[in-house]
Amino acid sequence: MDTILLWSAWIVTAILLLIFINRKNLLQAILSFLFMQVPSWLFGALVVQGGLIEYPVGILQMAYRASFTFEFFILPAVSAIFNVYFPKQKSWLVKTIYTLSFPTVITIAEVILETHTELIKYIHWTWYLSYLTLTITLLISYWFYLWFFKKIKEKYQ
Asked: Which pTM does this prediction carry?
């Protein structure tokens, strides 16, 4: 059942990318996706190597003990959607709700998976650490996104 959930996550994430990312914002999405793989991989490797989280079931378990699915596909896809649709022109309150909603949904899903499956096991970890690291990595990705496209705009105007 866990393997089915894992492959379902790949399919659902791919469908979400197809729905939310169009040709107009493809470059921004690709940049966000690729950038997020770096901090996601780093944090994932650190928590597994530090004995904080374990992923008993996963893809490429022999080569990578952390969650390949989450760190190289799901979180980068979420980051792409997050950055492309960030409400730049909205109020501080709307931006805050938007920013906090993404890690909230992911953390709730993670806690459900941790409780009911073998896909993730907290050893010395808690949901609020996941929430905090997700929020920080999404914001780092967004700040990079803003910086990168500001530099591109400056260079070609």
From this structure: 0.91
